[in-house]
Design brief:
9 strands; 5 helices; alpha+beta; nine-stranded antiparallel sheet
């Protein structure tokens, strides 16, 4: 099963967004921190033109912690496909780990180096089968991520992009002030800033 998601920049305060979500029937279902460490073997060839390729070959050490759920630690690989700079498909492979420092040591020993870190505080807001993740990402600001849980395995790129536009319009219909880009790539944005690309 293949899901799709959009991520949009929010141009108003978190309190204002939360108020609008609650007014529209959404309920908070999580409250936690997420820390991602991206590691790559290709740091020495990083440039503005190959960021997506390097991210697709990078691994992520993910640590989620907070009061609503048990602490979780994972090693993750994301395989994304793009059309015109927009993500059309994404496959995620993950395994649970118990020690982040040891995992970093193993990866460094076989040639991986830290590419970038993403630190965020996030809350899930759910209504029926729709979940928005309200993310406050260090170095980027406030975002909404919306994952569509339908199966898009047999949809073509144009159908996927069309559905993403519908998802974007749904967020706008709630009265939330969002940016024009419905496909914000957090790690990409952080890499551009960190390395002045």
């Amino acid at each position: 099963m293949e899901n799709i998601e959009i991520t949009v920049k929010v141009n108003e305060s978190k309190d204002s967004v939360v108020s609008k979500l609650i007014k529209n029937g959404f309920k908070q279902t999580s409250d936690e921190y997420g820390d991602d460490i991206y590691l790559t073997k290709d740091l020495d060839i990083l440039n503005k033109d190959n960021i997506f390729d390097i991210l697709n070959k990078s691994v992520i050490i993910r640590h989620h912690h907070g009061d609503f759920r048990d602490e979780r630690k994972f090693l993750i690989l994301k395989d994304k496909k793009y059309k015109d700079g927009k993500v059309t498909t994404e496959e995620i492979y993950s395994v649970q780990i118990d020690n982040i420092d040891n995992m970093i040591k193993i990866l460094e020993t076989i040639g991986f180096k830290e590419l970038v870190r993403k630190n965020q505080y996030f809350n899930d807001y759910t209504k029926d089968d729709i979940t928005f993740i309200l993310e406050d990402v260090e170095g980027i600001g406030l975002l909404i991520e919306y994952e569509n849980k339908e199966d898009f395995n047999f949809k073509n790129d144009d159908e996927i992009i069309e559905e993403k536009i519908k998802m974007y319009n749904y967020i706008k219909s709630l009265g939330i002030d969002i940016g024009d880009d419905y496909d914000i790539k957090k790690a990409y944005e952080l890499i551009i800033k960190k390395y002045n690309l």
